[in-house]
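Input (Succinate dehydrogenase cytochrome b556 subunit):
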Amino acid sequence: MTTSRTPRPREYRNIGIGDITLKYRMPLAAILSILHRVSGALLFLFLPFLLFLFDQSLTSELSFEVFKQFLSNIVVKLIVLALSWAFFHHFCAGIRHLLMDVNHDAVSK
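Output:
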């Protein structure tokens, strides 16, 4: 009597974020895409804060002086630097994504 073997189903396993970041080497395009999303989220979250600061700086001369003192803080300078990076990265990566939508040869290897 022959015993027929049924093929074993493919085993799936859960992987964590540590497995992805430490064991797998993501391509540069994937890293840029993730950073594009992160920079967009940063810009979206900090937009009300930036609009409030802009409004306060335009209200009067006194509020502008307070705004200048506020910007002299090193933590605020770092936040402004991070938001500037987010804006420029998001802008450049967005142009790249638009070029990929129009013509993939423009961004091929």
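The mean pLDDT is 83.
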